[in-house]
Design brief:
By secondary structure, this protein is α/β, with parallel strands linked by helices. The chain folds into three domains: 3-134, Nuclear Transport Factor 2, Chain: A (Roll); 167-309 and 513-532 and 541-587, 3-Layer(bba) Sandwich (FAD/NAD(P)-binding domain); 316-506, FAD/NAD(P)-binding domain, CATH 3.50.50.60. The strands form six sheets. Strands 1, 2, 3, 4, 5, 6 and 7 form a seven-stranded mixed beta sheet that branches. A hairpin with a 6-residue loop joins β1 (32-41) and β2. α5 (184-195) packs parallel to α16 (560-578) and α14 (513-521) crosses α15 (523-529). The chain is globular, with a radius of gyration of 26 Å. The protein starts with a helix and ends in a 24-residue tail after the last helix.
Length: 602
């Protein structure tokens, strides 16, 4: 199919769709495949919503489009033109759309496939709709950028630096939004909120911005490629390496805060917060570096600590007899001090493998203990298959929109294809691991590493060399259940042998989001919010990036790409709450007119 025919088929469908929206559900159904999907992010439902099946999707779409006042669906001339591509093994016309609603401008992704049962008529397989901005609250970018100080400067007044210092001090006010954590999740959220003119303060317990990466083990390098990991508004320089070293990324985080003029208090611990329902604000207690305590009263708290904030320490009583050094992977730094020593690393996820490899490279004698089956893929090409879209040519913004147009059912189907392809490509790797007794799996229903991350936050490893060291016997492998107990000098195995160690590193993961919420807000709030991360009945990540059942409490986390994409929608929701467009919590019965945030119009 030639490009002009692709465009004409797309335009013909869009024209019919606009007419059908003004008619009835039957007219819409004629435009969709029986297996079809509608995913909405805020544009029509003010929620993350996935509905599958032609009848259910078109019925809901007609209802919500009418309620949202959605009109004017058209190809977006500022985005990638319609093209014929393969998605989830299916040849489809993929087109990027724009339209308007009562409250803002929105974008869409349309995927058309030929219906063999209807004369190869092109029908919708996937329709994705997503809010871009709110009317009157567009981001101050490009020609809308703030003017700053005028050209006729008042030399007697405070200069830019004076103003920045005053803004970040919060001596005379409280922030509208308190963001807890200044890693990628916090930075993305704070930058998006700033662009919507929402007064936002980040607090982070680390001494410097970027220490969440800078303080991790010495050899750490990102396992996905640079083009996937940009932060909002400031892409990485084009000469940066494909795989970013942790310290380079940490330095960029610090530069990002300065360049984007984000307000942050470092060396500041977020201790607790209680919600004042009468005033619709938080009483949030933070402890500064000097030990002083400040109680802030933001209307919103965004937990941006991520899924790797608090180490998950097993019961250390079982290691009580061990006289060597015991530490969690979060506290591991550099293997050089362990040169010539004997080390046991417990856990075979990414951190366990990387730390074992770092210790080996530093001259330690290393044993890796496997507690359960682990998914292993080669870092290239298998580990990068799911990111291929970002090499296809569309801009990062277009790619981010296209990524959003993948409902859970299709996402799992796509990752099963990636996993099957990877098994073939990595056959020698898997055979080698099997020979040494390494227990492998390929994720639930063969959905691979991505869905392991999205459901449990780990349990996989991108091979950057440690698997080869294991196969070659340079790093020893034992199964953790084969250990009977720990003694002063090491681990007594069930066969009676003693394996002596000077160091034990526990690569045992991190506490859940729910545990973090309970620790800071109390068990009652954690119970009210419910499960965070993983997928529920709505086929979306639970309580991530959206209103929770607790008024004014939000959660953001995940990879750099996840944070870049979803911080936009989190900020739009908070702005909509401030404008009185939507209630403060998803479960609230409060009418828009009675929303107390309507008075703020921040």
């Amino acid at each position: 199919m030639q490009p002009d025919e692709v465009i004409s088929q797309t335009q013909r469908w869009i024209e019919e769709f606009n007419r059908a929206l003004a008619q009835d559900v039957d007219a819409l159904q004629a435009l969709f495949m029986e297996e079809s999907y509608w995913r909405d992010v805020l544009a029509l439902t003010w929620h993350y919503t996935t509905i599958e099946g032609r009848d259910a999707a078109t019925t809901a779409l007609a209802k919500h489009a009418r309620e949202a006042g959605a009109t004017g669906f058209a190809l977006d001339p500022q985005r990638t033109p319609p093209r014929l591509v393969k998605r989830v093994g299916v040849m489809t016309i993929e087109a990027l759309l724009r339209f308007t609603t009562r409250h803002g401008h929105a974008s869409g992704v349309l995927r058309l496939v030929a219906d063999a049962g209807d004369g190869d008529r092109w029908k919708a397989w996937v329709l994705h709709t997503a809010l871009e901005n709110l009317h009157g609250c567009e981001e101050k970018l490009g020609k809308r950028r703030p003017t700053g100080q005028s050209h006729s400067r008042d030399f007697s007044g405070p200069n830019w630096l004076d103003q920045r210092r005053a803004a970040a001090a919060y001596d005379d006010r409280d922030p509208a939004v308190l963001v807890v954590g200044a890693g990628q999740a916090g930075l993305c959220a704070a930058a998006r909120l700033k662009m919507l003119e929402l007064d936002t303060l980040m607090v982070d317990r680390m001494a410097r911005i970027g220490d969440n990466w800078r303080s991790r083990y010495h050899a750490l390098t990102l396992h996905n490629q640079v083009q996937v990991n940009h932060l909002p508004y400031m892409p990485f320089p084009p000469n940066w390496p494909t795989y970013l070293p942790k310290d380079k990324l940490a330095g960029w985080f610090e530069a990002y805060v300065e360049a984007m003029e984000l307000n942050v208090w470092t060396a500041t611990a977020f201790e607790s917060a209680e919600y004042d329902h009468g005033r619709h604000q938080w009483n949030a207690r933070v402890r500064r570096a000097d030990g002083s305590v400040r109680v802030l009263h933001p209307r919103h708290v965004v937990m941006a600590t991520g899924p790797s904030a608090e180490p998950n320490m097993p019961d250390t009583a079982e290691f009580g007899a061990f006289k060597g050094r015991l530490m969690h992977a979060a506290h591991y730094g550099d293997g050089e001090q362990w040169r010539g020593k004997r080390a046991l690393v417990i856990g075979t996820g990414t951190s366990g493998h990387d730390i074992a490899q770092d210790l080996y490279g530093s001259g330690a004698e290393v044993t890796l203990a496997q507690r359960g089956s682990t998914l292993v893929v080669s870092i290239e090409p298998t580990g990068q298959l799911s990111y291929a879209l970002y090499d296809e040519g569309p801009s990062v913004d277009d790619c981010d929109l296209i990524v959003g147009a993948t409902p859970l059912t299709l996402g799992k189907r796509a990752h099963r294809l990636f996993t099957d392809h990877g098994k073939a490509v990595d056959r020698e790797l898997h055979e080698g691991l099997a020979r040494i007794g390494f227990a492998e799996d390929f994720g639930e229903e063969g959905t691979g590493w991505q869905y392991k991350y999205l459901t449990r936050g780990g349990g996989y490893y991108f091979n950057v060399g440690c698997s080869d060291l294991l196969i070659e016997g340079k790093i020893q492998l034992i199964q953790y259940p084969a250990i009977a107990d720990f003694e002063a000098r090491g681990a007594r195995m069930k066969d009676g042998t003693l394996r002596e160690f000077d160091l034990i590193v526990l690569a045992t993961g991190y506490k859940s989001f729910e545990q973090q919420v309970a620790a800071h807000f109390g068990e009652a709030v954690a119970k009210k919010v419910g499960p965070i991360w993983g997928f529920g009945d709505e086929q979306e990540l639970r309580n991530m990036f959206k209103r929770t059942a607790q008024e004014g409490l939000w959660v953001i986390g995940g990879s750099l790409a996840q944070c870049r994409i979803n911080s936009k929608y989190l900020a739009l929701q908070i702005k909509a709450c401030e404008q009185g467009i939507i209630p403060l919590s998803r479960t609230s019965t409060m009418s828009t007119a009675s929303n107390p945030m309507a008075a703020h119009h921040a």
